[in-house]
Amino acid sequence: MDFEAVIGLEIHAELSTKSKIFCSCTTEFGKDANTHCCPVCLGLPGALPVLNKSVVDYAIKAGLALNCSINKETYMARKNYFYPDAPKNYQITQHETPLCSEGYIEIETEEGVKRIGIQRIHIEEDAGKALHEGESSLIDFNRSGVPLIEIVTKPDMRSPKEARMFFEKLRSILLYTEVSDCKMQEGSLRCDANVSVRPKGSTEFGVKTEIKNMNSFKALEKALEYEIERQINAIKNGERIVQETRRWDEAKGQTIVMRSKEEAHDYRYFPEPDMVYLKLNDEWIEGIRKTMPELPDEKKKRYIEEFGLPEYDANIITTSKELAAFFEEAVNIGGNPKTISNWIMGEVLRILNDREMEIKDVKFTSKDLVKLISLVEKGTISNTIAKKVFVEMFETGKDPEKIVEEKGLVQITDEGAIRDIVNKVLDENPQSVADFKNGKTKAVGFIVGQVMKASKGKANPQMVNKLVEEELLKR
Amino acid sequence: MAVDKSQVDYVAKLARLEFSEEEKEKFVGDFNKILQFVEKLNEIDTENVEISISSYPMFNALREDEVKPSLSLDEVLLNAPDKENGYFRVPKVVD
């Protein structure tokens, strides 16, 4: 029997506000424990939470970017549970009335564009952080009250790869809109997954498990792969899938049971009595719509139409807002869009991936890249040399024209000079000449390579090709 | 709707509270009285009445996104029954 997976995601993103959701403490990350706390975020008796307007703005922005309807009348809810990182013994969140609902994101699967539904987005406060040490747990409340949006998808994903693509696209949109800095290593973007399996073609859902603690795109994909296989094997062995929460153990490469739903929480939600209704009007929502930047999908479409980029290139360049900005700057300075795209897709991304860096960290500017490209186009340097100049430019941030001048890398286009090198190489390699005469055309490639080497890569490659053939035929 | 002892046990467990058998019996009676009292509201026809969340005629109590000084670490930890290196220390919890 063939099985298919059914996956839904719950994503928490910390918002980019300066202060917390219900008090004026800073949201800054990585400072000494318990130094960003006040009576409100410590849950001291009598403290009164007051909603941060920017939280509402960011959540609306996220909702609009994710094609949601914005709900004009909502209220906060109290979710009751005991855990030492929640100082009030409840979390202020939204329950019956999320701020945004019914949206979607489109992802590009191998079968074409697929729409993944978003059920809801609501605002809530983050909890503190517990460090487990020996026989006790240590609690830091700096994160308590940091504003979050929780984004809940519909169970529309059918493979770990689709889940990963969705999560990547979502991150890209949240970064474009600057709703969240999405630093997964700092926990400002976190993802849980609900997953079940069922016989292919079935329309009923199987029993689902929830997986937590997946801290990277790769972890999400790996954890889902493991869990789907575990569930399928269990069913094949006649076992029953139990509804439970499991944790991804990166080191073991397994999902491990945390708690079963039999001991499920009863949160006893009720409207938060410390807060009043939130009422939005069209003016507020439209005001935020006006601040919406061009989103990855729109940008991609424009790159294809306006600049004639292949869809693949446009997709990759628009994944990162900064990379897209770099590309557009270069195009505006006056470079050929396709050539710039080729450089970005090739050398630029290769070196960034190698060094685990991002475009915003590089020393050279888009202007330098355009200059480098123009040096190739004018024939001053060859493509091969340009790649070397690029590395130098990357390391030092120096002007490419200066690098070429200082290192004497200007291309040799003097036919006589190249012909001399060709003949010298042919003299030194009689075997290759003989091979060529015996019909081994591969010898040409070898000779060309040797000539380029002898010229330290500076000879014009087209001329070398032409002259090597000419001189070989003369012999 | 009537409450029995098992529901009192359940609510006590959720609230992390412990009671004697006598107290629980008393709560069964109290809870039922409270519910009966509230049930009176069912006599009213609420067919076309919107749900009311808050009795205040207010909405949008909001603040600007401004950072103000937090408490000092000493003040934060003033009520902590146990602490270590600036952290609150609690019995080990593993989720």
From TrEMBL, chain B:
Statement: the UniProt record of this protein carries the keyword Nucleotide-binding = yes
Q: Classify the source by domain of life.
A: Bacteria
User: Signal peptide: which range, if any?
Assistant: none
Q: What GO MF terms are annotated?
A: asparaginyl-tRNA synthase (glutamine-hydrolyzing) activity; ATP binding; glutaminyl-tRNA synthase (glutamine-hydrolyzing) activity; transferase activity
Sorted alphabetically, the Gene Ontology BP terms of this entry are: glutaminyl-tRNAGln biosynthesis via transamidation; regulation of translational fidelity; translation
Top-level EC class as recorded in UniProt: ligase
Q: Which UniProt keywords apply?
A: ATP-binding, Ligase, Nucleotide-binding, Protein biosynthesis, Transferase
Provide the reaction this enzyme catalyses: L-aspartyl-tRNA(Asn) + L-glutamine + ATP + H2O = L-asparaginyl-tRNA(Asn) + L-glutamate + ADP + phosphate + 2 H(+); L-glutamyl-tRNA(Gln) + L-glutamine + ATP + H2O = L-glutaminyl-tRNA(Gln) + L-glutamate + ADP + phosphate + H(+)
> Is DNA-binding set as a keyword in this record?
no
EC numbers: 6.3.5.-
Quaternary structure note: Heterotrimer of A, B and C subunits.
* Family assignment from sequence similarity: Belongs to the GatC family.
Quote the function comment for this protein: Allows the formation of correctly charged Asn-tRNA(Asn) or Gln-tRNA(Gln) through the transamidation of misacylated Asp-tRNA(Asn) or Glu-tRNA(Gln) in organisms which lack either or both of asparaginyl-tRNA or glutaminyl-tRNA synthetases. The reaction takes place in the presence of glutamine and ATP through an activated phospho-Asp-tRNA(Asn) or phospho-Glu-tRNA(Gln).
Q: What is this protein called?
A: Aspartyl/glutamyl-tRNA(Asn/Gln) amidotransferase subunit C
Gene name for this UniProt entry: gatC
